Amino acid sequence: MTIQEIATVLDAKWLSCPEEGQREISTAFASDMMSDVLACVTEDTLLLTGLVNSQSVRTCEMLDVPCVVFVRDKEPLGDALALAREIGLPALKTPYTMFEACARLYMAGLRPVELG
Amino acid sequence: MIIKETYPVKADDMTCAGDVSARIKRHMKRLGIPSSIMRRVSVCTYEAEINLVIHSDGGQIDFEISEDRILVRARDVGPGIPDIDKAMTEGWSTASNEVRNMGFGAGMGLPNMKRNADDFHISSVVGEGTDISMIFNI
Ligand SMILES: Nc1ncnc2c1ncn2[C@@H]1O[C@H](COP(=O)(O)OP(=O)(O)O)[C@@H](O)[C@H]1O
Ligand SMILES: [Mg+2]
Predict the structure, then answer these.
(1) Which CATH architecture has domain A3-108?
(2) Whole-angstrom Cα distance, residue A3 to residue A7?
(3) Is residue B108 within 8 Å of A38, Cβ to Cβ?
(4) pLDDT per residue over B81-116, tens digit each?
(5) What is the domain count for chain B?
(6) What is the model's pTM?
(7) Does residue A30 sit at the B interface (CB-CB below 8 Å)?
(8) Nearest to residue B71, comparing CAs of B58, B62, B80, B79?
(9) What CATH number is given to the structural domain containing B87?
(10) What is the ipTM for the molecules in this complex?
(11) Per residue in B124-137, pLDDT tens?
(12) How far apart are CA A16 and CA B121, in angstroms?
């Protein structure tokens, strides 16, 4: 799916880099624990998280994650958003809970990452 | 030697945690290091940097790229690790709730570093500090 399609499925608001809307993503990972993300993500994967500090964006930078979604309408902190813009990371905000956001994306065709 | 740099890391400053790892990643990008290697180095550097911030009294990260390998070494002054086998166990952590609320402290850092590095070496002296070296073949 494209990031734009992901945004539509999640009724999400774009927080940064809307010009990346045509980028394709096929897998997703959801966690508030960045160490779990760092241990499990080895391909270009969407990240869903409730962690709104700058470490969520740093983690995406380290892993080349192509897009981050903040769930439950949580507003990322100012430095997180500034960092997302600086590194060119598309960030979205969805009103849905982690569970519902994941369910919607799964039904729309996104798949889990392969665990090594 | 293509690059040899040393970066200081301050203890307790979560807002800057990751800055050194980001700089190191930028070096690798500029030099055209393959993305799969870059990802592994970045994961290890970032986990090591976070550990210096949350567990030590401050330290440094040495980063070296030569023709055929990348070296990352994280050294600190601090409490050290009394039982390294225990610390290497997935899920074992002494991190505070405050650190957990920042997305870390799952006890996955050291095992993940070991898994991602081609060569991983850790030594620690209680009351002095910890020294971790990781090598990645290019
Ligand atoms: N540099 C360090 N100095 C002192 N103790 C450390 C250091 N790095 C790791 N440790 C100890 O080892 C444990 C496991 O580390 P790690 O696997 O990175 O998990 P986490 O950082 O999430 O606790 C830590 O909780 C801490 O007790
Ligand atoms: Mg750690």
Answers:
(1) 3-Layer(aba) Sandwich (3.40)
(2) 6
(3) yes
(4) 999 999 999 999 999 999 999 999 999 999 999 999
(5) 1
(6) 0.96
(7) no
(8) B62
(9) 3.30.565.10
(10) 0.94
(11) 999 999 999 999 99
(12) 40
